[in-house]
Write a structure and sequence with these properties.
116 residues; mainly beta; two-stranded antiparallel ribbon; disordered N terminus
């Protein structure tokens, strides 16, 4: 992926298995601008429920979920984008193909390029 002059390559990742913490606790300090979850059939309920609520309560500005054919019952990659609207998520999607946004940051992702 080519990086433009206004694009940051700084990314953070978190591995729950390697991060000792009490069950059901999350530290979102500082609050993330954007959270992207890759949804699987096994994680769907948690990603769209508990995690969405946790990210909202933790101050995240945007929460995206992406479903891939290898992991869920979709025929091509699709995303749902949730933007913070006061005290709830405003969702749009499913979106297929190209996502191009400048909120919360400049980002361009061709979902059809995502594979496992």
């Amino acid at each position: 992926m080519p990086w433009g002059p206004a694009t940051s390559r700084t990314c953070a990742s978190w591995n729950a298995a390697r991060s000792p913490r009490p069950a059901n606790t999350f530290n979102l300090d500082p609050a993330p601008l954007l959270v992207i979850e890759i949804v699987s059939s096994e994680s769907r309920r948690r990603d769209l429920g508990e995690k969405a609520d946790t990210y909202l309560a933790g101050g995240a500005l945007s929460y995206w979920t992406i479903e891939l054919p290898a992991l869920t019952n979709v025929t091509r990659p699709e995303a749902t984008i949730r933007q913070r609207d006061e005290h709830r998520w405003e969702a749009r999607g499913p979106i297929v193909g190209l996502i191009q946004t400048n909120t919360p940051l400049d980002l361009r992702i061709n979902l059809d390029d995502l594979t496992i």
